[in-house]
Write a structure and sequence with these properties.
mainly beta, 4-stranded antiparallel β-sheet, globular
Length: about 130
């Protein structure tokens, strides 16, 4: 089991930037893929980005590709989500999640992630 704590959310104007962090403890951090998901009110949780255990491969939802960057620092047991050019439709609670295996496979969904953080609110005003 791994414990995850997100930070870095907040209120930002459209076009602005935020950097989310997720600190992990417990299971060996470098042994599993990490992901970011988000959930807006009245909507299902959706995939945002994922990164393999080495950090060498990253994956993004089409809605954020080119604007968001996921990265990890295995020495610090932390995964990051840099969000640039934010839009009002990015408003949601953002969750980090630990994968059940080292590799993220395209199409993997919430069920493929075994541990979740409590979430951090991101609000983008127009």
């Amino acid at each position: 089991q791994v414990q995850l704590v997100e930070s870095g959310g907040g209120l930002v104007q459209a076009g602005g930037s935020l950097r989310l962090s997720c600190a992990a403890s417990g299971r060996t951090f470098s042994s599993y893929a990490m992901g970011w998901f988000r959930q807006a009110p009245g909507k299902e949780r959706e995939f945002v980005a994922a990164i393999n255990w080495t950090g060498s491969n990253t994956y993004y939802a089409s809605s954020v590709k080119g604007r968001f960057t996921i990265s990890r620092d295995n020495a610090k047991n932390t995964v990051y989500l840099q969000m640039n050019s934010l839009k009002p439709e990015d408003t949601a609670v953002y969750y980090c999640a630990a994968g059940r295996r080292p590799i993220y496979y395209s199409g993997d969904g919430p069920a493929d992630f075994g541990s979740w953080g409590q979430g951090t609110q991101v609000t983008v005003s127009s």
